Every structure is written in structure tokens, then in C-alpha cells.
Amino acid sequence: MYLSIYGKVLLVVYRLLHTRSTTGDMREVVRHVSTRYPKANIYAVGWSLGANILVRYLGEESHRCPLSGVGSLCNPFNLIIADEDFRKGFNNIYDKVLAKGLQSIFERHLLLLEDMGGEYNIPLAVNVKTVKDFDEGLT
Fold first, then answer.
1. Mean pLDDT across the stretch 104-122?
2. 3-state SS, residue 31
3. Facing residues of 12 across strands?
4. pLDDT in tens, 21-62
């Protein structure tokens, strides 16, 4: 199982392994929209890590992909380098702000997750200082 947090919605998805570039949520959203609007042309645009997830999804789906068009903006193609740069200079401020946002969303759903235990470090996820802390607590 892994946790994905988008806006104010917490998605709990069962999976053996989670990474920042996991495409399961993307696949589920595209499936849902395609099912609900079977005659519609569906387009997707990804920004930053979202662009990386979108491009990976396209590669995995290949000729089966139901999307009519996509846009990939500011894609961090090399996630290892992007992760290292994320904690340098101005990005350090962005890291802390994003971590606080993740922490806030997670705390709103804590009652649903407090018995999760196992390999997850809930206390770390509740007290994060960086996005890496959040990842280490929940992935």
C-alpha cells in the first residue's frame, strides 16, 4: 500500500512498492475519465514531477494509451540529480514549504491511518521538515 496526496484528497492505493514516479494514480484517473466520458478526447499536462509521471505513464502504456495529447513542462528527467538539487539554494525553501503542506494534509487524515504501522513511520511523517523525511516515513 502507498499513500498519494493531491490537494486536499488522500488516496490510499495498494501496491508493493512506491516511488515518486509511480504511475498508478495517473492510470486510475485516466481510466475513470475514459470510462465516464467514452467519446471525449482526453488531454493531460504535467508540470515538474507531474510531467515525469506523465511521460513514464506514456512509456508504460505505449499504443494502449487513451490520451489524445499531452504536454510535459519542466520535466526533471533525471530524478537523482533533481532530488539532489531539491535541497540546494532557493529550492531548500520550496522543500520546507512543500513538506509542511504534505504534513498538513497527512495530519487531516491521521485518524484513518494511525493503525497502519508496519514498515511506515507515522511519527516521522507527522513531524517532517523536508519532503525526503515524508518519503522516508511513508514509502
1. 75
2. helix
3. 3
4. 688 889 999 999 999 999 999 999 998 888 988 999 999 999
Residue pair 5/102 in contact (Cβ under 8 Å)? The answer is: yes
Do 55 and 102 reside in the same domain of the chain?
no
Alpha-carbon distance 95 to 97, whole Å?
6
Whether 45 and 70 map to the same domain: the answer is: yes
Same domain, 69 and 56: yes
pTM recorded for the entire structure: 0.63
Together in a domain, 78 and 97? no
Q: Is 99 in contact with 131 (CB distance < 8 Å)? A: yes
Strands, E assignment, the chain:
2-6, 9-13, 43-47, 69-73
Q: Buried b vs exposed e over 8-44: b needs ≥16 C-beta within 10 Å?
A: eebeeeeeeebeeebbbebeeebeeeeeeeeeeeeeb
Taking a C-beta distance cutoff of 8 angstroms, is the pair 49, 6 a contact? no
